Amino acid sequence: MKNRLKDYGNQVFNEYIKYRPTSSSIKPVHIANGLFRLITGESYSVEALNEWIIRWKQGKEISSATEIREKYHQAFDESNFDDDEINKLRHFLNIIFNADNAAFPSANNTVLTISSKRQVRSSVQLEANINNFLYNLLSKEINGKPSPCLELIKVALDNENDDLSRIAVPLTNYARKNSIEQQKNASSYMLEGVEVRLRKSFDMLAENEKITGNKLLTLERVIIFGCFVVINHLSSKVLDLSERYTPSERVPMLFNADGSLGAVKFASEETLLIAKLMIEEFFEKGLEEVLKLEHYDRFTHEEILDRIDKIRMEESSKKTTDRQDEDEKRKSYKALYLGYYEQNKEPFQAFIKATRFKLFADEYPTDPTRFITSLGGRIALLTPRAQGAGRKRYSPDPLILEIILYTILDSNKRLTLSEFGYELWERYGIIIGANPEMDFEILTKWKVSQITPGDLAGELARNAEKIADVLISMGYGKRYADGVTVVYLRR
User: Which has more pLDDT, 82 or 393?
Assistant: First the structure.
């Protein structure tokens, strides 16, 4: 029997999802740092750049311009900078290299905007093993080859001939290099279902990025797409684990063009709620497999209650000022179990649901469902962007649409809007309304259409046209006189 309640949740992450998205503080730059470190096999100290970037701590100046000049005089190349010029430079460096607000007065947990390998630092807690998941996804050999994304990133990080890297070089020259041992277990990592589809998308993105040759844009696209992959994987993984679903099923993500179509807006909010419910179902499925190993599925109602009395819960990681003591936590846990048990009289299923709820509520700083909301806002996949600003929906920034286009099309492929809609659904479960009847039927199956006020069926087609307008304005499509819209990559 496990010592702590949290051990069960950790097993689910270790065996079924390979990463632990239990913090809403995880930012794209944390994921980038971890992935880039694994790819290059190197990390560097960031103290020098960090000291320039972070000037203040609790309203007090940490180091003055005079101190900066004395410590880093070699970086000035005999140029004469006065204090005001140094402080202005520090301000602009902060804007550029602290874009994700992940820098702190102490460099121990600082992660900076990365344009070259010398800005990649050692591991930080907020990477949450997401970097390992993405690295394994890219490293797994298919037809004897890993993803071309790996070499693309490595070449980009080796190249310091870009505007950002050239700005940072005088300070990154102070960085100490550390070699790390690269992962060796990618060959044993199995890709199935959603992971196969996502790997295919990464490979297509890499092939298209080789043609563009824009290093900084390439790194940005890869990391934003990597964040999208994590969200899509987390909400869809249960499709591969549960017998309730067929291989052709997808979890719907209704992309709302601009919020002006009320029915589509509401339905998009509902599909985000479905994603969260699917994460809960995934976690419960993982718990089911873990707990079966200890024969919980054979326990009677009384035996489950007895086990609840024996599981340790006092080592919660959730930081609260009014932390419950062990007895109160156990009482709450038991009440949850009894509530679920009254609904279906199935001890095992009631215990799974109560355990999942308790883990999400007490054992983690946040839960995976709130994690996808936070990360989705950070990459401009969801709106409203601000935390806690009303019901969120899928309403991607044009950059997200552009990246997704690059993961589906090659330079010679042209798709009608309808064909593009089919590809989006097959690859990611994305719905834009390009095939209104099919899309409405999917939303009906997922019980979205019947609770949506207004004319959802009619608005879906208009939503697709609005998304097509965005792609056309970016040079990725054309609408012909007969009303047919074609999307393609511009070169």
Answer: 393
Task: Using the predicted structure, report yes or no on whether residue 188 has a pLDDT greater than 70.
Answer: no
**What are the backbone angles phi and psi of residue 315, rounded to the nearest 5°?**
-100, 45
Residue with tokens 């006020």: 453
Distances (CA, A) of 231 to 82, 219, 364: 47, 19, 18
Long-range contacts of 452-459 (CB under 8 A, 24+ apart): 452/263, 452/266, 452/267, 452/270, 453/262, 453/263, 453/266, 454/262, 454/263, 454/266, 455/263, 456/263, 456/264, 456/267, 459/261, 459/262, 459/263, 459/264, 459/433
The number of C-alpha atoms within 13 Å of 291 and in the hemisphere containing its C-beta is 25
How far is it, in rounded angstroms, from Cα 484 to Cα 243? 40
- Give the CA distances from residue 94 to residues 98, 100, 113, 317, 334, in Å, rounded to whole numbers and listed in that order: 5, 10, 10, 32, 50
Q: Residue 42 half-sphere exposure, CB side, CA atoms within 13 Å?
A: 15
Among the listed residues 157, 143, 153, 228, the one whose alpha carbon sits nearest the alpha carbon of residue 194: 228
Give the gyration radius of the chain's Cα atoms: 25
Residue 434 half-sphere exposure, CB side, CA atoms within 13 Å? 22
**Average confidence score pLDDT of the chain:** 92
What digits encode the pLDDT tens for the residues 280-305? 999 999 999 999 999 999 999 999 99
User: Measured in Å, how far apart are the chain's first and last C-alpha atoms?
Assistant: 60
Decide: residue 333, CB within 10 A, 0-12 exposed, 13-18 middle, 19+ buried.
buried
How many beta carbons lie within 10 A of that of residue 441, not counting itself? 13
Q: What is the pLDDT of residues 411-470, one digit of tens each?
A: 889 999 999 999 999 999 999 999 999 999 999 999 999 899 999 999 999 999 999 999
Distance CA 152, CA 471 (A): 26
pLDDT tens digits, 389-405: 679 999 999 999 999 99
Q: Nearest-CA neighbor of 480 among 132, 49, 472?
A: 472
Distance, CA of 401 to CA of 71 (rounded, Å):
45
> How far is the C-alpha of 355 from the C-alpha of 416, rounded, in Å?
47
Report which of 333, 324, 369, 375 is spatially closest to residue 353, judged by C-alpha positions: 333
pLDDT-based confidence at 270, cuts 50/70/90? Answer: very high
Write the single-letter amino acid at 401: L
